[in-house]
Design brief:
alpha+beta, 5-stranded mixed beta sheet, 38% helix
Length: 363
Amino acid sequence: MEQHSSGGNFLLRTNGEAWVALEEAYLTEGTTYDWKYVLHGLEQSPSIQFCGLPQFPHRVVQGEAYGQLTTPFYSGQVYFEINGIKFETYIYPDDRKMTEEQYALMLSDILQEASICFEYSNIEAGIEVDQHSRELSLAQWSYIEASFPSLAVMIWNVIERPVRVLQSCDQQMRRDRVRTVDARTLAWMERNRGRGVVGTIPEKVKSSTREDSYNTYENKLLKRWLVDLRHLLKMYAKATQGEHAVRAEAYADKVGYWLQNPFFKQVAPYQGLIRISQVFRKHPVYRQCYQWFDRLYKHGNEQIGMSYRYPLRETFALYEIWCYMQIIKIFREKGLLQDSGRGYIERQGKAFSFTLRSIMRVS
């Protein structure tokens, strides 16, 4: 009898929809699915694992085993293992989930409206508005906290599989150890003919060897970025207090640990002008590193202050702030804000507090 495919026997559905085979299922993150496994003949209860976790059937009815599973809250490649056979599938992101572009747009709207708020609150403070800046800012710190784990993955991928080039160098070696003879070696031997004790070829010959070198432009630039990042994190550790300072110091120590790796020790930091090479354009890991550090310094918008207590890495908190700013914007555009003598932004030391109180003027 022909052996049945375990993948074809495993079916999925959601919200009472039609059953579909595993190969045709469209899985989204954070979703509960009903699954069904069709038993054949005297086949025992199936052994099913999803993302490394066993899935046990809730019931077995008329040769069919039924159960439920919930996809994790992340997207990417995952695996099913059915009766010892591994099947690859993909979890797609939830359409309701905020994307990185939406996160950046909401943050930009908040900072843009915040700069106008200062005008109404009669607060004199130096506010820099520059798309590319190396100044400390809440937006930059939020970016570092949100994306530092992904940077760690990129750096370790570079350390494990860095790009390298073949470099040739001339050195003196015994003539029996010469592997390749090129035009430069022949010219040297011709000039030094007869200097050997025995025969016409000297005992030691000047020849060129080719060795792998990691001291490429991309690796040198990456080390320069990491050195700058460690210095930047040290500045955040000094400029902030409490939990932020502890995390900034921990991030700086992590970057220092990367720089102590033998790979980076044999690479010199790049000192010249930065250009986009073909490796940064085409290599998947190096391209991501370039994009990460390029975005790092594109947070030169309005700086509200590092003592601001809202954790912007939590999207619900950012959404609440964004909604508040949209209300302020509507009132401002309709001329319903009170005079600047009773503003709704107050300075408290190095921080600014936002208060929604009596901001509307009844006409």
